[in-house]
Amino acid sequence: MSLPIMDRHFRRLGLQSLLAIAFVLLSLPAQAVCQLVASPNEPVRTRVFLAPNEVQIRYIGHSTFELTAPGNVRIATDYNDTHRPLETPTVATMNGAHSTHFSFNPEDGIEHVLLGWNPAGGPMDHDLTVADVRIRNIQTNTRNWEGETRRLGNSIFIFEVADLCIAHLGHLHHRLTQEDLTRLGQIDIVFAAIDNSSTLRLESLISVLADIRPAMVIPMHFHFHGALEAFTARTASEGYKVEMANDSSVVVRRDRLPTEKTVYIMMPRGG
């Protein structure tokens, strides 16, 4: 075969190959699970596709959860330098207990950083709406390592989203007053520290949960030896159904909340 003929032959093959590749690409099914969404001035975030009445909860570890709302608003609770979600959140809430509950160096791209305490002292009140998510807080007192009271050192953050009310109790150190409970309102899901040491003792925590009456309790802060076992045994004796999750994330919605009070344990080797 002469060189000009060979050249035309390979060019024809190249065109045929390109057409074949284009046909294969056009024949592939569209990906409907995830896509990357960003603008030039925003961090890239993987979109989680949720129905308008759904919220995804992912347990990152210790006291940090990632909540993803239907509009792809992402919230990281007790955002800190040790436990962080893989992607930059839209909102980061923090508590002033110690370094695993806050960060002095939050990532660029977080639109709202909400401190649960006032570093200068005094109140720190939040009532923020981001898309269809309302975030508010109720401050409580804490104690230092010497047992002295630190006024307003903690916040319970409440997330109102997709017809659900989700409360993160933070580093709660005392039982709640009637005023606290009134301000909380009806809570569907509670993230509760169950360490039985540096926050509430177990009996006081059980009393707080009885006062709040959520459908679902998701434990956190269970790094102390035996804390998880003691909590599950105690709640089971109080009539809670205890479930062990198979994954570190779950999608929740009002019409699928448990009909009996439930302890839902995520990432049991974490905490």
Topology overview:
Blueprint: H1 3-27, E1 36-37, E2 45-46, E3 55-61, E4 64-68, E5 74-76, E6 91-94, E7 112-115, E8 127-130, E9 133-143, E10 149-161, E11 164-168, H2 178-184, E12 189-193, H3 202-212, E13 216-220, H4 227-237, E14 241-244, E15 249-252, E16 262-265
Parallel strand pairs: 5-6, 6-7, 11-12, 12-13, 13-16, 14-16
Antiparallel strand pairs: 1-2, 3-4, 3-15, 4-5, 8-9, 9-10, 10-11
Textual characterization of the structure:
The chain has one domain (48-265): Ribonuclease Z/Hydroxyacylglutathione hydrolase-like (Metallo-beta-lactamase, Chain A), CATH 3.60.15.10. It has four helices and 16 strands. It has 271 residues and is α/β, with parallel strands linked by helices. 20% of the residues lie in helices and 30% in strands.
